[in-house]
C-alpha cells in the first residue's frame, strides 16, 4: 500500500471542486430566479471557452484567421469572452424562455427548448471550431506550478481556484448588498409582487441570464485552459455533475452550489486516494449524493419549502 | 400553488432527461427504411430486411453500364464496367475524428488510384462514406443503412473497436464482408467469418512493445491507467497486464477513468506515489491530456509513457507537446519503412493532401487495396459471398504495411514495429 500524498490529493479535490462550483453557481442562479432548469448552460460554458480561444489565437479553426489578425492577452480575452457569453445568455433567454413565459407550466417546455438551443449552439460550434479537440496555445499563461507541502498545482489550475473564489464572492456581494441584487431576490421570491412594486421583471430576467452565462463562460475558459481540452461537446461531461452539485447544494442556492461543488470534487478525489483505484469513484460520489438527499430532500442549503395552498 | 414542492422531483426528472439527451445525441440519424433502388435485382426492400442471415449475392452490386464508367475501366477495353459500392464507416466527428479524418482521405486516395488505373477488370469502386461519430448506435445505424439501402458489397471500418463490436454483428448477420482497418481490440474477428481486419490486434503488438521497452529501459515496476468504459481501452489494458505478467514486470498501481472525464490528476497522483519506471496509458485521444497532466503533476520525464494504438497518431504528439516526448508506442506501420508500396503511398498522400500520413491512413489505404485485390480474384461477377472467400485467400500482398496476409482467423499477419516519440516525430525504437 503506497503512501497517500494527502496535500496533492486535497489540491486536486480543491481544483475539481472549484471547477464544479464555478459551473454550478450560474446554473443554480437561473433556477433560483426563474424556477427553470437551463439545460443550455453547458453550451454557453463551451462557447465562452471557444470565444476566449479565438481572441487569444486570432483564429477560427473552421473559417480562418480573424481580420486584422489581432491576438489579445489572455486576461483581456477572458473578460471579452465573458461579456460575449453573457450576451449569448440574454439571446438564449429571448429564444428559449421568454416566448414560453406567458404560458402555463413553463417548467418542462422551457427545459425542452433550452435543450434545443444547446444543440443549436453545439452545431454552430462544430461548424466554427470543427469537431475536434482544441487547446489554448502553450504560453497562454505562465507555465509552471506552485508547490504546497508535498503537492504541486500548475498556475492554470490555481487560476481556476482563484477565479471561483473571486467570482463567487463578487456574485454574493452583488446579490446581498446591492439594489440590483435585492431586485433579483425579489423577483426570485415572487415575480408578481415584484412587478407590483415597480421592478422591471423582464429586465431582471435578462440580467440574471447575463450574469449566469458570463459565469458559465468563465468556468469554461478557465477549466478548458487547465485541462488543455476544448471541444464542441465539452459541456456535456460537466452538465450532469453540475446538476448533481446544485441538487446537492439545494436548487437555487448559490452558497449551496459552492458547497456542493467542493463536496463532490473532494469526494471524487478522496475516493480515488483511499481505494487506490478509480473504479468506484463515481459510485461513491453518487451514493453520497443519494444519502444526503434521503436525509435532506431539499439539498444541503436548500430552504425547506412549505406547501402553499 | 404547488410549484415549490416540485423542485426536487423536477431536479431528478431533469437528471434523467439529461442522461437521455446524452444518449440520444449520439443517434441523431434514425435507421432508414427506404427500399433499395429498383435496379438492384431480386432483393426488394422487404426481402432484404427479412433475409437477415443470407442475402443473395446478386443483389449486392449495382449494374451501371454507363459510357463514362466504361471509359475509366481501361483494363476491359470497350466492355461494360460495373459500379461496386463499398461502404466506408468512419468517425468523422467527435473525439475520434483525429483517426477518422486521415482514414477518409486515405480511402479516397486509394479508390481514385485504383479506378484511374483500372486495377480491377470490369469494376469501378464507388465508396459510400458514413459517419459513426465514434459511437456504437451511430455505427449500427450506418451499417444498416449501407447494407439495406445502399446494397454495398463490402464495408470498410468502423474506426473504433468499441463501435465495431456493436456494428460488425449487423454485417455478419447480413453476410456482408467487412474489413476493420483500425480495430485492434480482442474479440473482433471472432464475431464471425465475414469479419476481417488489416490492423494488427493489440494482442499482436503490445507484447512486442513491452518486451522491447523492458530490454531498452530495464522496466521493473509500472503503473497503468485506462478507460474503463470503452472496449478498446479496456481490451488494451488486459493485453498490457498479461504482457507485464509474462515479462515479470510488477504493476504497482492500476487506475481507471471514464470517457467523459477530463481531469486525471487524482489518478495520476496515486500513480506518482508508487514511483513507477513507466506509466502505461491505454487510452484514445485523451492520452495526450493524460501525458500532459502527468508532467504537470511533476511526474519526471524519465518516467516513460507507454501506449497502445490510441496514442499512435500525430495528433497525440501535437496535443501533448513536450510532455509526450519519449513516449513508446507499438505500431503496425512506420513512415520510415522503405518498401516500395509504402514510399509510393506516402508520396501520393503528401501530394494530394499536403500532410504526412499516419498509421490510420496507411491501414485504411491498404484496406482498399486488399478489397481491390480480392475483387480482382473473385472476378467481375463478384458478390458478397465470393468476395468473402477471395478475402480469406489474400496472401503475400505487397502493401505499405509490408507483405500482407490474412491468418486463418482473418486477423492481419505482418511484422509490428516499436516506435518512440523523438523531436516531435515517431521513430523506430533502437
Characterize the structure shown.
The complex is a heterodimer of chains A (309) and B (430). Chain A is mainly alpha-helical and 309 residues long. Chain A has one domain. Chain A is 69% helix and 4% strand. Chain A is built from 11 helices and 4 strands, in the order H-H-E-E-H-H-E-E-H-H-H-H-H-H-H. Chain A has helices spanning 6-34, 41-57, 74-97, 106-129, 155-177, 179-189, 191-196, 201-226, 234-249, 254-275, 281-295, and strands at residues 59-60, 64-65, 145-148, 151-154. Chain A has a two-stranded antiparallel sheet with strand order 1-2. In chain A, strand 1 (59-60) and strand 2 form a beta hairpin. In chain A, helix 2 (41-57) crosses helix 8, helix 2 (41-57) crosses helix 9 (234-249) and helix 5 packs antiparallel against helix 8. The longest helix of chain A is centred in the first third of the chain and has 29 residues, at 6-34. The model of chain A has no long low-confidence stretch (mean pLDDT 90). With 430 residues, chain B is α/β, with parallel strands linked by helices. Chain B folds into 2 domains: 77-200 and 340-415, Response regulator (Rossmann fold, 3-Layer(aba) Sandwich); 203-331, Rossmann fold, CATH 3.40.50. Helix content of chain B is 42%, strand content 17%. Chain B has helices spanning 7-26, 45-50, 67-72, 97-117, 136-149, 161-174, 202-217, 231-246, 265-272, 287-296, 314-320, 340-353, 359-378, 384-392, and strands at residues 82-90, 123-131, 154-156, 178-180, 195-197, 221-227, 250-257, 278-282, 304-307, 328-331, 397-399, 402-406, 412-413, 417-422, 425-428. A 7-stranded mixed sheet of chain B has the order 7-6-8-9-10-14-15, with helices on both faces. In chain B, strands 2-1-3-4-5 form a 5-stranded parallel sheet, with helices on both faces. Chain B has a 3-stranded antiparallel sheet with strand order 11-12-13. In chain B, helix 4 packs parallel to helix 13. Chain B is globular, with a radius of gyration of 23 Å. The termini of chain B are far apart. Mean pLDDT of chain B is 84; it is low at 1-6 and 20-78.
Amino acid at each position: 500500500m503506497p503512501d497517500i500524498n494527502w496535500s496533492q490529493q486535497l489540491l486536486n479535490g480543491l481544483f475539481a471542486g472549484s471547477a464544479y462550483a464555478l459551473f454550478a453557481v450560474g446554473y443554480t442562479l437561473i433556477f433560483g430566479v426563474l424556477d427553470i432548469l437551463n439545460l443550455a448552460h453547458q453550451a454557453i460554458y463551451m462557447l465562452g471557452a471557444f470565444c476566449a480561444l479565438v481572441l487569444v489565437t486570432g483564429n477560427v479553426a473552421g473559417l480562418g484567421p480573424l481580420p486584422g489578425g489581432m491576438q489579445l492577452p489572455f486576461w483581456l480575452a477572458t473578460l471579452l469572452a465573458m461579456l460575449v457569453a453573457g450576451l449569448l445568455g440574454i439571446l438564449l433567454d429571448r429564444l428559449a424562455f421568454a416566448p414560453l413565459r406567458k404560458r402555463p407550466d413553463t417548467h418542462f417546455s422551457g427545459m425542452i427548448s433550452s435543450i434545443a438551443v444547446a444543440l443549436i449552439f453545439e452545431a454552430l460550434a462544430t461548424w466554427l471550431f470543427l469537431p475536434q479537440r482544441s487547446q489554448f496555445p502553450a504560453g497562454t499563461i505562465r507555465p509552471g506550478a506552485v508547490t504546497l507541502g508535498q503537492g504541486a498545482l500548475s498556475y492554470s489550475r490555481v487560476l481556476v481556484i482563484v477565479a471561483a473564489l473571486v467570482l463567487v464572492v463578487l456574485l454574493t456581494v452583488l446579490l446581498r448588498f446591492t439594489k440590483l441584487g435585492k431586485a433579483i431576490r425579489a423577483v426570485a421570491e415572487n415575480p408578481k409582487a415584484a412587478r407590483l412594486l415597480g421592478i422591471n421583471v423582464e429586465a431582471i430576467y435578462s440580467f440574471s441570464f447575463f450574469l449566469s452565462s458570463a459565469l458559465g463562460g468563465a468556468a469554461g475558459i478557465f477549466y478548458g485552459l487547465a485541462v488543455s481540452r476544448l471541444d464542441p461537446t465539452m459541456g456535456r461531461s460537466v452538465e450532469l455533475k453540475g446538476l448533481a452539485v446544485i441538487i446537492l447544494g439545494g436548487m437555487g442556492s448559490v452558497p449551496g452550489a459552492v458547497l456542493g461543488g467542493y463536496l463532490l470534487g473532494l469526494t471524487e478525489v478522496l475516493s480515488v486516494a483511499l481505494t487506490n483505484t478509480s473504479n468506484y469513484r463515481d459510485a461513491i460520489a453518487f451514493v453520497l449524493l443519494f444519502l444526503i438527499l434521503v436525509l435532506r430532500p431539499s439539498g444541503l442549503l436548500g430552504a425547506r419549502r412549505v406547501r402553499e395552498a | 400553488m404547488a410549484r415549490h414542492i416540485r423542485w426536487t422531483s423536477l431536479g431528478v426528472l431533469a437528471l434523467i432527461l439529461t442522461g437521455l439527451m446524452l444518449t440520444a445525441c449520439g443517434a441523431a440519424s434514425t435507421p432508414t427504411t427506404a427500399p433499395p433502388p429498383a435496379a438492384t435485382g431480386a432483393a426488394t426492400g422487404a426481402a432484404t430486411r427479412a433475409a437477415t442471415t443470407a442475402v443473395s449475392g446478386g443483389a449486392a452490386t449495382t449494374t451501371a453500364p454507363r459510357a463514362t464508367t466504361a471509359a475509366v475501366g481501361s483494363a476491359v477495353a470497350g466492355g461494360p464496367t460495373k459500379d461496386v459500392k463499398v461502404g466506408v464507416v468512419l468517425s468523422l466527428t467527435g473525439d475520434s475524428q483525429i483517426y477518422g479524418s486521415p482514414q477518409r482521405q486515405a480511402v479516397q486516395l486509394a479508390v481514385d488510384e485504383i479506378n484511374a488505373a483500372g486495377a480491377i477488370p470490369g469494376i469501378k469502386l464507388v465508396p459510400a462514406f458514413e459517419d459513426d461519430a465514434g459511437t456504437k448506435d451511430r455505427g449500427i445505424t450506418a451499417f444498416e443503412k449501407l447494407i439495406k439501402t445502399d446494397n454495398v458489397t463490402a464495408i470498410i471500418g468502423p474506426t473504433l473497436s468499441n463501435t465495431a463490436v456493436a456494428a460488425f454483428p449487423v454485417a455478419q448477420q447480413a453476410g456482408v464482408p467487412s474489413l476493420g482497418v483500425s480495430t485492434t481490440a480482442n474479440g473482433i474477428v471472432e464475431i464471425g467469418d465475414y469479419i476481417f481486419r488489416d490492423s494488427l490486434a493489440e494482442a499482436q503488438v503490445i507484447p512486442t512493445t513491452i518486451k522491447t521497452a523492458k530490454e531498452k529501459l530495464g522496466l521493473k515496476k509500472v503503473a497503468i491507467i485506462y478507460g474503463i468504459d470503452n472496449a478498446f481501452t479496456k481490451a488494451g489494458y488486459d493485453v498490457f497486464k498479461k504482457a507485464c505478467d509474462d515479462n515479470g514486470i510488477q504493476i504497482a498501481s492500476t487506475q481507471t477513468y471514464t470517457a467523459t472525464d477530463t481531469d486525471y490528476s487524482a489518478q495520476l497522483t496515486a500513480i506518482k506515489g508508487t514511483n513507477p519506471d513507466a506509466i502505461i496509458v491505454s487510452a484514445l485521444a485523451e492520452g495526450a491530456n493524460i501525458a500532459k497532466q502527468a508532467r504537470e503533476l511533476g511526474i519526471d520525464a524519465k518516467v516513460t509513457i507507454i501506449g497502445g494504438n490510441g496514442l499512435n497518431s500525430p495528433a497525440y504528439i501535437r496535443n501533448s507537446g513536450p510532455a509526450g516526448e519519449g513516449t513508446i508506442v507499438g505500431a503496425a506501420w512506420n513512415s520510415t519503412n522503405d518498401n516500395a508500396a509504402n514510399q509510393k503511398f506516402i508520396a501520393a498522400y503528401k501530394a494530394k493532401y499536403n500532410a504526412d500520413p499516419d498509421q490510420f491512413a496507411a491501414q485504411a489505404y491498404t484496406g482498399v487495396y486488399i478489397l481491390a485485390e480480392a475483387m480482382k480474384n473473385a472476378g467481375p461477377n463478384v458478390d458478397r459471398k465470393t468476395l468473402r472467400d477471395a478475402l480469406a485467400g489474400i496472401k503475400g500482398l505487397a502493401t505499405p504495411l509490408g507483405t500482407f496476409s490474412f491468418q486463418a482467423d482473418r486477423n492481419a499477419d505482418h511484422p509490428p514495429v516499436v516506435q518512440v516519440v523523438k523531436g516531435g516525430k515517431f521513430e523506430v525504437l533502437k
